[in-house]
Task: inverse folding
């Protein structure tokens, strides 16, 4: 069984994130790393691999040179191989082009199951798994709080505001898992050493048969017009709670705002 | 004049508040047409017409409840094919975003998610990078497909002639592959919807697992209860109430964070709240940088004292 995990290299959310002049995410000026939410996807793939003997876990990423770090971390955690889709023409691609490229790469890789995180921590759209499924005509069992595979079927539990759903789909299928699916493992020293010997392939647009004119900033069907940093907040009032001063300040604040 | 398609979600057989917000925004762009998934319901249609829907389309098919997402996207694409559309507006829920993504593929159209505003020319506003940046954007191809966050606008009535239609669609086998085999309804908390509430009171690690004062203050203020990821991970409060990057994003009039340090993942879910109050033992907690009022102290003591005083004032 072959599992492809889609992983993304993102700017560190705990650092200063900003935009480049062309309205794309500035990936040069801040440190990047494997999107935390994709670690849950890798973990679920590795758990399936732990239970069976026939599982190959391939980490696939789409991004510039630095994105190799996301593959590296995936391999250190225990994935068997990596695929790095890299091509200058990809810069600035929107969700439509991204999903089209990844759909072609998935076709070429021909897995039984694709596992994704619930969203990237930079774009946070959470639409790529559904859009890939739409393009491939595959079942999409998305936002799983649990994930299990048996025979040729995948099962997830999806929690909505009003119900907890059990969803089944036949393989090949694409799934996404939430941060409720289980803590991701840390790479072991053995895993870190082993990762260096694992195969990583580089694929270009030509390898996928995708026209460069169909991707990138110029082919994006939405355009960023303006990016503005949020003005720093005026410092508020701080009260140290002594002799009920905290409760009094809170009540006064609520009364002033007419909440009580 | 072009039409604007919106999906009107229902809560307890009424249009949801976000559905009325979508209609209010849609009126800026064209003539709003509401789609409701279900059999014709005149009461629902009447409310939608009151808020400006020029037509209300009811689409019923068992596939909408038997399978995830895909059948709804397919139905909308079929409805959209016969219309002259300026935009399609959908509420930013996990399902709404997936429907929007699929529609953008089907219609080969620009996709924008989590908008907090839409201008009459279709320019959208989004709050990104944990609320630290504001981005304006526009679709450049096809019909703008946009998901809009709840609370983006105050619903305004604009009565329109009531016109309902029951529309028939054909759902393909390809859309019927992620089968919902069971559905366990969740118990309602009886409090306002977290994403729609005017007041949210949230508890974190500092509660030590005791949400009694958090819930009581929320009830006193008529608000909703939220929780930080730390509190949810500890099993103290259900995931459905998690606020932050991997939970809900809220933008209430007032957000009270109690025992929450304010990690970036949490700030991503509440930074755009109009007023913020933080109660935390640690005066160095990053949440204080966002707070209009910060109280350094024990949250149980501070909240209990405040609840007692509010009750006293109300007699």
Result:
């Amino acid at each position: 069984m072959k599992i492809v995990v889609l992983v993304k290299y993102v700017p560190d959310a705990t650092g200063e994130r900003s935009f480049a002049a062309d309205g794309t995410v500035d990936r040069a000026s801040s440190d990047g790393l494997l999107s935390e939410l994709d670690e849950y996807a890798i973990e679920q793939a590795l758990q399936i691999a732990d239970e069976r003997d026939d599982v190959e876990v391939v980490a696939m990423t789409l991004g510039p040179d630095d994105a190799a770090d996301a593959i590296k971390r995936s391999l250190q955690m225990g994935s068997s191989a990596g695929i790095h889709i890299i091509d200058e023409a990809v810069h600035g691609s929107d969700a439509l082009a991204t999903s089209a490229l990844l759909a072609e790469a998935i076709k070429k890789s021909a897995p039984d199951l694709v596992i994704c995180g619930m969203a990237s921590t930079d774009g946070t759209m959470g639409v790529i798994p559904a859009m890939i499924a739409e393009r491939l005509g595959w079942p999409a069992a998305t936002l799983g709080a649990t994930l299990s595979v048996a025979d040729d079927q995948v099962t997830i539990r999806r929690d909505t505001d009003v119900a907890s759903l059990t969803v089944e789909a036949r393989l090949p299928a694409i799934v996404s898992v939430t941060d409720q699916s289980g803590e991701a493992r840390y790479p072991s020293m053995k895993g870190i050493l082993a990762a260096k010997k694992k195969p990583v392939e580089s694929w270009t647009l030509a390898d996928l048969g995708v026209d460069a004119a169909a991707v990138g900033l110029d082919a994006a069907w939405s355009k960023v017009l303006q990016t503005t940093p949020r003005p720093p907040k005026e410092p508020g009032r701080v009260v140290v709670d002594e002799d009920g001063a905290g409760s009094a300040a809170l009540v006064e604040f609520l009364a002033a705002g007419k909440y009580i | 004049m072009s039409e604007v398609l919106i999906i009107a979600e229902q809560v307890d057989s009424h249009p949801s508040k976000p559905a009325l917000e979508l209609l209010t925004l849609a009126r800026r762009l064209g003539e709003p047409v509401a789609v409701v998934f279900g059999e014709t319901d005149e009461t629902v249609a009447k409310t939608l017409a009151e808020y400006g829907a020029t037509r209300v389309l009811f689409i019923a098919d068992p596939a909408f409840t038997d399978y995830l997402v895909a059948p709804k996207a397919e139905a909308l694409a079929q409805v959209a094919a016969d219309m002259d559309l300026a935009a399609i507006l959908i509420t930013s829920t996990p399902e709404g975003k997936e429907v929007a993504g699929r529609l953008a593929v089907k219609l080969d159209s620009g996709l924008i998610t989590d908008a907090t505003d839409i201008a009459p020319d279709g320019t959208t506003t989004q709050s990104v990078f944990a609320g630290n940046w504001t981005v304006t954007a526009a679709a450049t191809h096809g019909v703008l497909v946009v998901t809009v966050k709840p609370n983006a606008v105050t619903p305004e009535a604009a009565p329109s002639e009531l016109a309902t239609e029951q529309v028939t669609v054909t759902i393909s086998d390809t859309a019927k592959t992620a089968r919902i085999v069971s559905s366990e309804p969740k118990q309602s908390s009886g409090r306002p919807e977290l994403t729609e509430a005017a007041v949210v009171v949230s508890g974190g690690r500092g509660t030590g697992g005791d949400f009694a004062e958090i819930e009581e203050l929320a009830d006193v203020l008529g608000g909703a209860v939220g929780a930080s990821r730390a509190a949810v991970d500890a099993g103290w409060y259900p995931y459905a109430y998690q606020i932050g990057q991997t939970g809900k994003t809220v933008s209430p009039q007032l957000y009270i964070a109690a025992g929450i340090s304010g990690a970036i993942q949490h700030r991503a879910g509440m930074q755009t709240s109009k007023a913020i109050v933080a109660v935390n033992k640690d005066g160095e907690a990053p949440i204080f940088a966002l707070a209009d009022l910060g109280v350094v102290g024990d949250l149980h003591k501070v909240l209990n004292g405040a609840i007692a005083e509010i009750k006293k004032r109300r007699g």
Notes: Residues 36-51 of chain A form the longest helix (16 residues).
